[in-house]
Design goal:
mainly alpha, two-stranded antiparallel sheet
């Protein structure tokens, strides 16, 4: 289910990028790759384990505060 959602969103991003690039497919691929990387990424702050791909990962979305999230996540691990 999650994989289908990611693929669907990637397709939407590519379609929008193709429109924004004026039909230039090579430019649209580069643009969509950049947009996708900003939206999805790997997170260490996941209950399913490390290196989990997620939408809007904390470390990427809030880069300036990533150390705070890591500290909170590590505190939660130590309480188990």
């Amino acid at each position: 289910m999650q994989e289908a959602a990611i693929l669907s969103e990637h397709r939407e991003i590519l379609e929008q990028s193709l429109y924004d690039a004026g039909g230039n497919f090579d430019e649209a691929k580069a643009l969509s790759a950049d947009r996708f990387k900003r939206r999805y990424g790997v997170t260490e702050c996941s209950i399913t384990g490390s290196e989990t791909i997620t939408r809007l990962p904390l470390e990427q979305t809030y880069e300036d505060h990533a150390d705070r999230f890591e500290n909170v996540f590590n505190r939660g691990k130590s309480r188990k």
